[in-house]
Amino acid sequence: MKTIFLVDDSATILLSISNILAKAGYAVEKAGNAEEGMKKFQAGVKVDLLITDLNMPGMNGIQFIREVRKLPNYKFMPILFLTTESQQEKRAEAKAAGASGWIVKPATADQLLNTIKLVLR
Amino acid sequence: MDELTTVFVTESREQLAAMEEALLQLEANPEDSDLINAVFRPAHTIKGGAGVIECNFIVAFTHVAENALDKLRNGDIKVSSDLVAVLLGCCDHIGNLLSVLEAGAAEPDEDLRAEGDSLLSRLQRDWLDAKEEAPAASVQPNRPPVEKVDDVQASGGGLVETDFWHISLRFGAGVLRNGMDPISFLRYLSTLGQIVHIETIPDAMPSAEEMDPEACYLGFEIKFKSDADKAAIEAVFDFVRDECTLHILPPNSKLADYIALLQALPENTMRLGEILVKIGALTQAELDDGLKQQHAVPPEEGGEEASPPPPLGEILIEQKVVQPELVEAAVIKQKQVSEKKAAEARLIRIQADKLDRLIDLVGELVIAGASTNLLASRAGLSDLNEATSLLNRLVEQIRDSALQLRMVQIGETFNRFQRVVRDVSKELGKDIELTIAGGETELDKSVVEKIGDPLMHLVRNAMDHGIESAEVRQAKGKSPRGRLSLNAYHDSGSIVIDVADDGGGLNRDKILKKAVEKGLVQAGVHLSDQEIANLIFEPGFSTVDKVSNLSGRGVGMDVVKRNIQGLRGRVEVHSEEGHGTRFSIRLPLTLAIIDGFLVGADRASYVIPLDMVVECLELQAHATSSGERNYLNLRGEVLPFIRLRDLFEIPGEPPKRENVVVVKAAGQKAGIVVDTLLGEFQTVIKPLGQLFRHLRGIGGSTILGSGDVALILDVQALAQIAIGREERSLAAPSSVNTPRISQV
Known about the structure:
Chain A is an alpha/beta fold. Chain A contains five helices and five strands. Chain B has 23 helices and 22 strands. A six-stranded mixed beta sheet of chain B has the order 6-8-9-11-10-22. A five-stranded mixed beta sheet of chain B has the order 19-12-13-21-20. In chain B, helix 1 runs antiparallel to helix 2 (33-52). The longest helix of chain B is centred in the middle third of the chain and has 28 residues, at 352-379. Chains A and B meet through helix 5 of A and helix 7 of B.
C-alpha cells in the first residue's frame, strides 16, 4: 500500500483529502505544519508522495519543499503542492524549489486521484 | 429560482424560438448549411447552459438532439420533412422541460419523460443508429465529436491506418530531480487512449563520462490513438511543460472537424489564436508560447530591427502545433466575425417590471406637470408660465420615449404562426400558405403578449372553417393552395391586425339557420349582413356539424372577442361569400398614456383621444334639422352627431353656443356635441373598476391637473351609437345601405 504524506494547516482540508485518499486505498500520514512535517522526514518516515499546502504559518510550503529535497532519502520522491488558479507565479517558484506538480483547488476527488496516479511510481 | 436559472430559462426560450424558425426555413432549403448551423447552435447553447446549472434532464435530452444535429451538419444525414417534424417536437419538448425547471420540479413527470423518450428513440432509430453502431458517448461541447475518430471507416470506405495523434516529446534534464518519472507520463497517457507506437530517442545522451545519472536525456516520438481532445492530451504533460519540448499534432480526420467547428463558432470578436484555442486545435499553452515568440523575434542578421513581427499563424505552423489548413480556415472565420460584429445592434436586457415602474412614474409626472401648469397659469406670472411650458414639453418627450421602450415588434408573434400553419395544414390535409406583412409594426409589450391567443383562434378557425379543401377549391376555380395572411398596420391612432383567408367566406344562410336553432334569434326576423356576421361572436355558436380537433367547439369566437375587448380593442369581420373572410383586430397604440382632447359638458370634463379628432366647429342652430334628427350638414356631407348632455343625461339647459367635435373611427365620421372645448391634454389612462365595465361610451378615466377626475370617451362606441340612431330613425325595414361592417 502506498503512503501519502499530507501537510496542511487547515484541519478541514486535511480531513477531506485524507478521507478521499483513504477511500481510494492509500495510507495517509498527516502534519499540521511544515516544521512538524520536517521532523517526521528527519525521523525517516516512509512515504511515497508528499502533498503540501504552500501557505502555512511558520515555514512556508516553498521553503519546506526546498528543505525536503535536501534530504538524501527524499531526493526523487514526488512532491505535489496545493494551489489555486490565480497563483501562477507561486507555481513556478515551487517547481524551482523541487516540486513535481500541483493540484488546483478546488479539485474534485477524481482530479485529485488522477494527479496522484500520474506522479506515483 | 435563482438568478442563474432564470437567465438560463429566458435565454433558452429565445434560443428555441430561433431554432424553430431556422428549422422551418431549413425544410424549404434543405441544403443551406448556414441554416443547419442556425439550428445546431441553439441546441448546443442550451445544452451548455443546462450543464452549468446542473439540470441533468435537459442536458440528457438535448445531448441526443445535438448529436442528430451534429450528424446533419456533417452531412451524415439529410434534411427531410420527417426529421424536421421530429426536431420540432424536440423543440417543444425542451420548452416543456424548461417549464418543469421553472416550476422548480426536480424531474419531469412520467408523461413528459415518456414523450421525451419516444422522441429520442425515434431520433436514435431512424437517424442516429442508421449510420453508427454505438450511441455517442458523452461529447465534450466545443470539441470535435469523438465518433469521428472512432469511425475507422474513412469517407472513401477503406480502413484508415494513419489516423493517430502524433506526439513529439523531449524531456528536460531536471525531470527526475523533481521527483517525476518519465514512464509515469507514458503510463498516464495510456489512460486517455492507446499508444500505438513509440520510438525512444536517446540522441541527447552524452558520453558516459559527461553523463549525469540524475538527469534525464530521453525523448519520445509517439503515435497515439485517442478520442481525447488536444487540451486533455497536453494536460498530461502539464507538470513538465516548462522544461520539455512538446508538439502535439492532431490526426488528419480531426482537421475536417476543426474546420467545421470553426464555421460553427458563435459570432464573437476573437483573435486568431483564441479561435484556434476555442475549437481545441491549439492549447492555451501553445498559444502563449507562440505569442511570446512573436514578440521576442530576434533582429535579423543585417540588423533590420524595423521588420514587423511575423504573423502568429506562421509561427504556429513553424512550431508544428497546428496544420496550415487550419490557420487558413481560422483567418477566414476571423474576417467573417469582425464583419458581422459591425452590423450587430447593441441591446440591453432589462426586467419588464422595471419598465412598468418607469411608465407608472412617468404617468404620475404627467399628472403632476398638469397640476403645476394649471397653478402657473392661474398665478399669471409670465416667467413661471414660460418655465412650466418648457417643463411640459420635456415631460411630453420623456413620456414618448418611455412608452417607446415598451414597444415591441409584432413580427416575432407572427412568425410563430408559420409553425402553427404548417402543423395544422398537415393535420387537416390542406395545402395552406401563410403570408406575413407588417411584422415591423410596433405594439405595446403587454398587448403583444396577450394578442397571441386570440390570433391563434382566428388563424385556426380560418384554416379549419374558412379555407376549403383542395377539391372544393378546384371545383370553384380557385388555386388548390389556400392562402392565409397576417398583416399589421397603423390606422388613425390604432394598430390593426388583419387575419384574412381566401376561403368560402361566411355562409349567411347557414349562420342564420344555426342561430335560429340555438335560439339566438327568432325565426323570420330580418337581419342585416352585419348583424348576421355578429352572430359568430355569440357564446356557444358554431356552424360546423362535426367537431374537429382544432376548432368547432363553439368556444372561441366569443373568447376572442372578450380577450380583444380586454385590450381596449375591437374585432371587425368583413366577409364576402365565396371569396374569403377578413378579421380585423383594432388595438390602441398603448395602454398607458395618450394625447387627449379635453372637452366640457356642464361642470364635468371628458377626454377624447386626440388621434380620433378630425376638427372642431361651432354647432349652428340652423345647420341641424329640427330637434328630432341628430345630423348636420358638414360641407355637404351628412354628419350624424350625439349630444353628450343627452347621452349622459346631464340636467339643465345647454349653453347658447355649443361645439361639435368631429371624430373619425374605423373610417366613419360622427360628431360629439359638447359645451366647451378645453384643448389638448396628456392623458394618463386609469382603468375603470369592474363595476363600470359594461358602460358603453366610456373607455377609462384620468386625473386632471386640478385633481378632478375626467372620463375618457370611447369614441368608437359613441360613433356607433350616433350612426345606429340615424339608421334606426331612417329605418325602412330593408337595410339597403347597411355597411358591410359590424362592430363588436
